Amino acid sequence: MRYLSGAAPQGSVLLLSRHEDFLVCASPPDDRPSEGRPDESLTLHVLPAPGGDTAVAAAGLAVAQDADSLAVEEHHLTVARHRAIGSVASQLRLADLGCAVEQLRVVKDEEEISCLRIGAEIADQALGELLESILVGRTERHLALELERRLVDHGADGPAFPTSVATGPHSGRRGHRPTDRRVEEGDFLSVCLGATYRGYRCEIGRTFVIGTSPADWQVELYDLVFAAQRAGREALAPGAAFRDVDRAARHVLDSAGHAEGLQPLTGHGVGLEIDEDPQLAPAAMGKLDACVPVTVEPGVHLPGRGGVRIDDTLVVRPEADGGPELLTITTKELLAL
Amino acid sequence: MRYLSGAAPQGSVLLLSRHEDFLVCASPPDDRPSEGRPDESLTLHVLPAPGGDTAVAAAGLAVAQDADSLAVEEHHLTVARHRAIGSVASQLRLADLGCAVEQLRVVKDEEEISCLRIGAEIADQALGELLESILVGRTERHLALELERRLVDHGADGPAFPTSVATGPHSGRRGHRPTDRRVEEGDFLSVCLGATYRGYRCEIGRTFVIGTSPADWQVELYDLVFAAQRAGREALAPGAAFRDVDRAARHVLDSAGHAEGLQPLTGHGVGLEIDEDPQLAPAAMGKLDACVPVTVEPGVHLPGRGGVRIDDTLVVRPEADGGPELLTITTKELLAL
After folding, report:
1. Which residue from A32, A221, B86, B282 puts its CA 20 to 30 A from B39's CA?
2. Which residues make Cβ contacts (< 8 Å) with residue B176, sequence separation at least 6?
3. Of B78, B152, B177, the CB nearest to A141
4. Which CATH superfamily is domain A106-326 in?
């Protein structure tokens, strides 16, 4: 809805009809948390929808517009609302829109990419500032909060997803929730964060080592994940199969004996949601287009010891335009902090 | 699911069966963001569910258990998943569980109330500290972030909902999203925040005036909303109709000529979600029980000028036990800051 209409007031519904489009809101957008501003070509219907059920109200509006069928997003609509729509508008044939809108969203225009680019700059800034501060002795939770505050200070709408800070044995785990564990000398520290800017969400992940010099196993593991991540990045091109990008990165880790316990995907699309199509995974079907922003984020986690994740957001571009555009430019050297 | 099983790993599903209960997860809970720890009486099934569809996997498990019917929560389940369940388990009769679990959750036990009480203490602390700092010149967004950081510093899992800070003409609006407007002399400042503690969410809202002395209209409006809020609080008792509590508060504002633009409810239940049953609203059906925690949060917003909201979380208790227990104890005097 945010994509098609420019705004997403809480609990509202978008009705696209043959003649005119409607944004149906239970109360004026000023009264409710909203995101963005509605497109001026939309009629804004404010309906005192009973129980706030704007979906049912929209179905009523469709009937009033002489529609004979209504395609709904069955993967979002609940069974209870579907039934309510069917009973209020029994003359409407209810069909499934499927993921048509998600498919439209995969390729971004330059305005969308520019929001992602600014978001990535903000995330780079927040991360850079953190690296200049004292880290030993601070908790994962505290560092994550600090990063989120900096994101907003630099102009983000907010974090793109819950910031992940993982130390020591937690490091390298995807989506690790920060705990009260403190940073210690010799730890791997892996950080994954992102900014939301005008609704668009990006992602960056880096792994550092705490102390003057990393141990041999840390250097080895880092080099390996770095090589896998580079292979994934280099495989990004218009026409490349999703699974081939995944395989390029995964193969490097597989051949080093880390086949087990690898995360199910190497990367994914980003945009208005942090996790959208495409999925870069072994069984994914389809090929990349130009102007598709994706993450490349392989990682290895050794239970009890920790691990490494390196995560960038890039935009697929043809070779003639210089190949994939890296949005998250923080260094990927192994820094000892 | 979190209520019945003690844990809510992302994307998991709870299957309650005649003989044994199952928590069905797509991957081990350690790998995925989770909340709480599963109850020991549950069997944890880790399923490599295709597409992560644990609901479909749970239906398969129900068939394996010789079940002949399965009640699902139709107000949460999507049409697409419902169809997938039906096709994988065509011998199961699919029924609607309705809001049975939500109804179970309305009355809290003392352990749940104790989590809410601790959450309220944390919110009181965070708010108290903010009031001791310099406010003039700071933006709504900055103050909201500062409050959220303090919540976590004092031991909250996180904010219970997006913290609302509203200054000047924004003040008094329910759910106002913080902007870059700065606090000015003479402003009303209304703040609404809450802590999540062990999954339980509370809420407190206060309105202050910035400067040495409030204007007459500010004192008048404040006294009015305070009187409405007190009337609402005093109406809380086991057996009181939801609509009567709402009316007690609403009547005060109505008779002062503020009938228009009043928010649709005076308060609501809190617990694992910030907004749960009951709703204290004009058309709500039902009566309060003892040990139901609710908010009482009337407010008036004058377009262009601002307004006042006062919001407490209380637990309904019989008169013999001292009447409603106030969890959020920050003063409700009109403070000039």
Report:
1. B86
2. B164, B165, B166, B170, B190
3. B152
4. Creatinase/methionine aminopeptidase superfamily (3.90.230.10)
